[in-house]
Amino acid sequence: MFATRVILIAIGLAAGLAIATPASARDSTSGGDAMAQRLEACTACHAEEGIRLEDGYVPRIHGKPAGYLYNQLVNYQTLRRRNATMNHLVSHLSRDYLYEIARHFAERHPPYPAAAERPGRALAERGEQLVREGDPQAEVPACASCHGERLTGVQPNTPGLVGLPRQYIMAQLGAWQVGTRHAAAPDCMAEITARLDGRDVEAVAAWLAARPVPDNTEPADAPVAEPPMDCGSVPAPDDNA
Predict the structure, then answer these.
(1) In terms of domains, do 40 and 100 share one?
(2) Annotated binding site
(3) Do 178 and 89 sit in the same domain of this protein?
């Protein structure tokens, strides 16, 4: 019931989202945030912390790097990612406006939900190994080498991994494994997940979901070291200036 209501709200507000343009998105003379009003279709579904549903999870988008959010919107527009509601909402929006949306949510940092319970010892140890050190024998780099030492993401295009539910992380890693989620080439996550077995996916998801949220949840300005592999992304409109 709740999921249906949220989807109907989003579809009902889609017209207001679709007709907006970067020039009209913010009205500094009105004293209010016109952009926030136009994006009620987004906040109705995603809320501030994400929304847990009986059969899934609508992820948190607040505070993630603008470049990452922009890439996901483009991925939905180009059908590299498939979700009927998202594909519909962004289908006719300009790239400039998609970037306006991304910047709007990137600038907002509400509190995170509480972490999940710590998994059993064996699962936790394997999860921490993969996140912190990777598995050189399997050619799996550490999650932290790209997503940041605090796992809060890295500017401009890498998302944070803290505050996400276990089942959602498993679902996204699984989507890359079976080819239902894609990113711009080179799709490094597709390469990495192909080297993980089901137990590894579970271990990473369980450990990340139980990770306490750090005091500083801002994405890092740069990775701690040179990323271990190239990952594709769609240049933001500002990058083309």
Answers:
(1) yes
(2) 42, 45-46, 86, 143, 146-147, 189
(3) no
